[in-house]
């Protein structure tokens, strides 16, 4: 669990703007201190010195207050297997 930052404001459309403490990948799951899922990172905006992270809430019941700290939960990378070549190899 890694700290994303503090909630700056909640927009009219329901998106959550977070004052970032560091770089965050798009698609990262955002959780609160109780490890309840709040939303998903959809965009990073603003200057590189103080970026803001846009989080799309997962459901309408995701209650987030201003100045609340959010954390990231990264998904484990799935192993990608090579596709097997099932075609018959012909020798001429």
How is this structure best summarized?
The protein is an all-beta fold.
Describe the structure in your own words.
With 92 residues, this protein is an all-beta fold. The chain has no helices and 6 strands. It has strands at residues 2-10, 16-20, 29-31, 37-45, 52-57, 69-73. It is 0% helix and 40% strand.
CATH architecture heading? Beta Barrel
Question: What is the number of domains?
Answer: 1
The top level CATH class name? Mainly Beta
Largest sheet: 6 strands, antiparallel, barrel
List how many beta strands DSSP finds: 6
Instruction: From the alpha carbons, calculate the radius of gyration and give it in angstroms.
Output: 19 Å
Query: Per CATH, what is the topology?
Result: Thrombin, subunit H
CATH superfamily: Probable tRNA pseudouridine synthase domain
Query: What is the helix fraction of residues, given as a range?
Result: under 10%
Number of helices: 0
- Low-confidence blocks of residues: none
Strand content: 35-45%
Average pLDDT number: 84
What order do the helices and strands follow?
Answer: EEEEEE
Distance separating the two termini:
57 Å
Largest sheet: spatial strand order: 1-2-5-4-3-6
Structural class: mainly beta
General shape: elongated
Q: Which descriptors apply to this entry?
A:
mainly beta; 92 residues; 0% helix; six-stranded antiparallel barrel; Thrombin, subunit H
Give the topology.
Elements: E1 2-10, E2 16-20, E3 29-31, E4 37-45, E5 52-57, E6 69-73
Antiparallel strand pairs: 1-2, 1-6, 2-5, 3-4, 3-6, 4-5
């Amino acid at each position: 669990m890694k700290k994303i930052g503090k909630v700056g404001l909640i927009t009219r459309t329901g998106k959550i703007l977070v004052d970032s403490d560091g770089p965050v990948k798009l698609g990262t799951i955002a959780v609160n201190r109780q490890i309840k899922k709040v939303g998903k990172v959809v965009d990073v905006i603003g200057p590189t010195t103080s970026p803001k992270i846009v989080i799309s809430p997962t459901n309408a019941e995701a209650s987030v207050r201003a100045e609340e700290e959010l954390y990231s939960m990264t998904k484990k990378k799935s192993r990608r297997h090579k596709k097997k070549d099932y075609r018959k190899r012909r020798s001429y």
